[in-house]
């Protein structure tokens, strides 16, 4: 039976995107909604609000100039990644709770967590502000390189570059050797941000020689 129009999700409907995901809270047995004290700049008074409603934005990835595509496809892909990362963290927590002093993860799980941590940082509100501008108004330090890249690849605005970068970071096959990963990424994403991805990703695999200095 075909899905009724009232049940189907409208491709033009708005969607709320969590900038800071509480994926770790999925491992908690608490059902309490986390709250946060915030200062209302208009009234000058402190109010108690839901963390999810504070660290988020409506239609962060939506492009109103492209109504013919699934406006929320990117967020759906990010949700799937967050779910897999949460499942891994839940397994790790259970092993530690059971008394294990050391937990080893296969490479694919470690790489998934590293990918998740980088993308969650790369999609935060600071980057949304960086990219949510016209080419003319783009004023980050890499302005010259960004405008040249947009012209070369045919991107009409920096936000389209941001979308393409996130998709590239989501799709790249991390089971390959690093030279191949970098080559693949540079075909999918803005080269300067690819370099940052590689630098950050490799840094996440480092631990101090002295275990006492390892705070994580």
Features of the shown structure:
216 residues; mainly alpha; two-stranded antiparallel sheet; 47% helix; globular; disordered N terminus; DUF4238
Question: Can you describe this structure?
Answer:
Pfam families: DUF4238. Residues 1-14 have a biased composition (Low complexity). Residues 1-20 are annotated as: Disordered. The protein has 216 residues and is mostly helical. The protein has one domain. Helices cover 47% and strands 8% of the residues. It is globular and about 55 Å long.
Structural class: mainly alpha
Number of strands: 4
Round the Cα radius of gyration to an integer and report it.
Answer: 20 Å
Head-to-tail CA distance between termini = 51 Å
Strand order of the largest sheet: 1-4
What string gives the helices and strands in order?
Answer: EEEHEHHHHHHH
Q: What is the helix tally?
A: 8
Biased composition (Low complexity): 1-14
Region (Disordered): 1-20
InterPro entries: DUF4238
